Amino acid sequence: MLAAAAALTATTLAKDFTPERLITAPRPSSDFQVSPDKTHFLLPVSHSHLDGSPSTHELYVYQVPQNTVLDQSSQSHLRSQDKAIVLPGISFATWLDDEHIVFVNGSHIYSAPLKSPSETQKLASLPAPIAEDSLKIVSTSSKGEKRLLFTAEVYPDGTLEGVGKVETAAHEEEWGRAKVYGGDNGAFFRHWDQWVRPGKRSQIFTTILSAPKKAGDSWTLAHDSFTNLLKRTEVNTPIPTFGGNGDWDVSEEGVIFITKALDLPQAWHTKSDVYYVSFKSGHLELLSEGQHGAVAAPRFSPDGEMVAWLQMAKDGFESDRRVLQIYDLKTRKHKSLCQDWDRSPSDVIFSADGNKIYLITEDYQQVKVFVTDLLQGGKDVTSAVELPRGSVSSFVPLSKDVALVASSSHRSLTEIYLYQDYNKSLYPLTWFTGSEESSLKSVEWGREPEMFHYPSPDFEHEDRHGWIHYPRGYSSKGHGKKKWPLLVLIHGGPEGAWTDSWSFRWHPEVFAAAGHVVVTLNPTGSTGFGQRYQDRILNNWGSFPYRDIIAGVKHVLKREEAGVDAERVAAAGASYGGYMVNWIQGHNDDGLFKALVCHDGIFNIMTGAFYPADELYFPESENGPGLPWDLSARAVYQQFSPEAHTAKWNTPQLIVHGAKDFRLVESEGVAAFNTLRRRGVDTRLLYFEKEGHWVNDPRNSLKWHQEIFAWVEKYTGSGPQEVRGSSSSASLHGNESESGAHEKVDDNVGESEEQSGAGLYFQ
Length: 763
What we know:
Pfam families: Peptidase_S9. Helix content is 17%, strand content 30%. By secondary structure, the protein is an alpha+beta fold. It has 2 domains: 95-165 and 188-428, 7 Propeller (Methylamine Dehydrogenase, Chain H), CATH 2.130.10; 450-746, 3-Layer(aba) Sandwich (Rossmann fold). The strands form 9 sheets. Strands 33, 34, 35, 36, 37, 38, 39, 40, 41 and 42 form a 10-stranded mixed sheet that branches. Strands 1, 2, 3, 4 and 5 form a 5-stranded antiparallel sheet that branches. Strands 10, 11, 14, 15 and 16 form a 5-stranded antiparallel sheet that branches.
């Protein structure tokens, strides 16, 4: 009997979506590179390991199907990983020409022919580290030449050689012991999880490559040095900490890039600008003139004559709506497009002919692709890709009717698809999720995640939205007298959203696989539902969103077919989600939640979210206008501070915090931990000495999952159990406007996830 039970348990676990499977799954990038002739693309893939070894990398080279009318029968062939060339050890590469790739390995830049990629040729040695994924290649006006560009961090002298002259052994030893910052310029002194090195900035370098003179020869450097296009400026591009290749673009004539406004204190302003620098003159030209907020995604048109970017109107407000901007480099005319469109896109892509612009944006719990026609004045925005499920992270037009799309979902890693506009279909070209090497290959999922909505408790004729995730073994027909525990996950931001995309951090499906029905809610403040839906959270952190969450939970509990136990409810969240957990802790009067988990949350809004913050503009915009030392503004900061309600902190709570979290400092976690243990409430602290706002080390991620699973199970159990007597269920049938009078379930709709774009602050 015991042997049979053990075998059954082992079989069950072998099919479950476990944290180990999540952490070690392949990680395809959405930053794939298409060859100039559109016949191949390069796809970087990384792998994380639980033994403490560094991540490993592979570069996949895929062929794009040409002149083929694809149908569903084509999919099994297209998804074959066997068709790809796999180059181990390369984390990123781009195309030198149709037959050669270029990449960085250590302190050298190499090229390799596609036909025999093992025959690498060293192009250059680097006197200082560069951003390996920043390589870009563009043709020049001279036949037989290419321009190579990359970004690197340098000091005020602007040279790669100067880095080593500053960062001597003695300098580094002192830097490890003592750091000194002035307070007169409003610059960041630490950001996210890093201390900022004074004077060091990322800038764009270029050099010329000469083509092979005869068959069998390799590309070579035309010059022995690299030119810093931004030398003697204070430009910092890409913008730290999350800036990347999307912060700059290149044409035959020059470069466009974004940088934080050079004349404003960066720690309390969000304004950034778009600049153009000509290769010929070296002159920097400001394109984004006037008063505005942050800019993003600068892009050249295919002919290099126009520039597009996204721009916010309000300086200081990182979650403002992004509006499409167009600038004609010939006429020097600038205009805003799609101003009435109530979405905030994250990326801009010109069509192959330059007559249309595609926009990637969150929209009702997915990330979708929309399009506007420049020939029609860019007035209307329409859906560009039919997306029944999943979320798009990258879109690359190949021709008028064909594009490559990177997309993921709750149950699919990032995969690359061929999109054909004439039949509105996506055809998979990769299949890492189910490949033989994937840790996900044998996973058996539960019932498909379900999108639902319910009435807003505060705003008439408005709905709030969410997802339900089911464990394997769940049945909509019920389990007799048995019901499942409910785990409520609360997203960060607060201007963020749970969407139908893959996440290696807070993945709802891995929590469901642990034996819970999981609900993820997108309350007031969430992105993808319009700016008004989002902006109502300002000065209302603990009101509208809190009531939306409670209404959403009660709505799910009232759904008989959901099969959840009102006596086994827990909640967990990180960042703003952690703030909300602490807020719930002081308002759990009816005992609805039996256990709570707070990861990098806020205990006191003033002492946690304002005074020690790295980005001071965030608390000022969320709780302002006004500063906390102004008596008239102080009350606004304090009105929704969890610390004010500690007299009612009675619910068992796990607290997680990272020592290197400069977004929400560790004292916030310690304060919550001390409060609970001094009050005699069961609590536990999980502290990571080398983690910041996110848990990145695979071993720590596993520990994180294990601790959360154990804590929640301690108070709610896992799997279906017989329903106990109810002490709080009476409250489920009270105010219909709070709990949701009518069940509303959306079928045949898609998904998306990773808190993106607006609201990156608290995630």
